[in-house]
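Example 474, ligand iron/sulfur cluster.
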Amino acid sequence: MSIPKENQLSSAAQDFIDENRLSKLLVSRPVDNGRLEEVVQKSLDKHPLTVEETAVLLQADKPQQVERIFEGARTLKRNVYGNRIVIFAPLYIGSKCINDCLYCAFRRSNPDAVRRTLSSEELKVQVEALEDRGHKRLILVFGEHPDYDAHFIADTVRTVYETKKGHGMIRRVNINAAPLDVAGYKVVKEAGIGTYQIFHETYHHATYAEYHPLNTRKADYLYRLDGLNRAMEGGIDDVGIGSLFGLYDWRFEVLGLVSHALHLQKHYGVGPHTISFPRLRPASRFKLNERYLVGDHDFKRIIAILRLAVPYTGLILTARERPELRREVMAFGVSQIDAGSRIELGGYTEAGDTQVLEREQFSLSDIRPLDEVMNELLRDGYIPSFCTACYRLGRTGEHFMEFAIPGFIKKYCTPNALTTLMEYLVDYGSPETRKEGAQLIERELAKMKDGQLKQKLMERLESIRTSDKRDLYF
Ligand code: SAM
Ligand code: SF4
């Protein structure tokens, strides 16, 4: 087992999780409504919150205070983000793993896990199956293994981009894999990746040690915490953080996530592009410890509080959650969801209607087909978007101004969401979804003020509808 050395850390390597300070901030004390209002207002004015201010939101637990936080999150979501929801799908590439994270079916000591790595041919088959359903954005997921080094990840990314079928193409590939060294990040950057995601799982040191056995690579807390600093130093300015909720006190993890976001912002001038907040799910041969499991009500609080704490960061909600809950919490400020997801290796062509725990990392709660999710979003008034324009035009990192520049969303995001939606409807939509989609596009156009932009957008929509023109973006 090669354990990382100190000289493999970034220049900003630091254990910025001051456990004493965070725990003190979480000592239960009543929150004055005036103070709560100040914090919510600061966020509604689009200022990121400090760790202390976030702790105020975590402590405000009287029912009407929680309602105020929910309301604040809904308002921020409406004012800042509008009604777009970006859609992606996960694609599992390999289940070999040298680590032994107790909660994960891929852990090396699990004798029941099916170990498999997609061959290049199998990968193409999966990508084509995803394209045939209408996907344009993927996240590739890897266990941690010497076979899955930076060159392998980069080759996989290139194969995905090269695989095209009909009007189908994957336009953005994100990665969720083990932390790399700076040289490794340069290699994957070169292949044209979007976001590099690493979840810290739990920011609480003793719990981290408990779930990540010593003598595994992942046991090194600082090496993992530093993973996205190294990504920044390798030229990847688009990174995603996350925490696995259910291992330790959720309030502590929220403060950990906010501390991490502030650390990246301070050292690199850019915060994380996205935050994920997966809840622990059943996995093969893993006995869930109930102590810290997060119930639905607290899960809603997590999302609303994160929304308010980091107004410029995208929030990702995954298919680990049930359809009804996904539908409800969307309004609190979620900006991306996966849809039509299968996480078994080869699952997009080989899986049936049920899940087999041995074949996947954990089980999902929402395996509805993409078209069904699209239909529901449209009926609820959301614009499902497959837009990839910012990343392809180099609008990333500090140039990623989606949420910061007034009018940016109206000028770029909404039109791009509508053209990518039109592509979906024409090429892949079921008759019912086409009908819902056409109505939504009409309603959105009616909201736009007349002028050059609207004119150009209408021309583009028409040319997608009536010709083979695709991939038109602002
Ligand atoms: N192997 C790499 C790593 O651990 O960073 C990357 C991918 S891992 C397959 C992706 C994420 O799945 C992990 O970071 C963890 O948060 C999440 N995960 C693992 N087991 C889970 C479970 N039982 N329920 C929910 N999420 C889980
Ligand atoms: Fe391996 Fe990642 Fe699973 Fe841990 S969470 S056992 S590193 S795949």
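Summary: The chain is about 45% helix and 10% strand.
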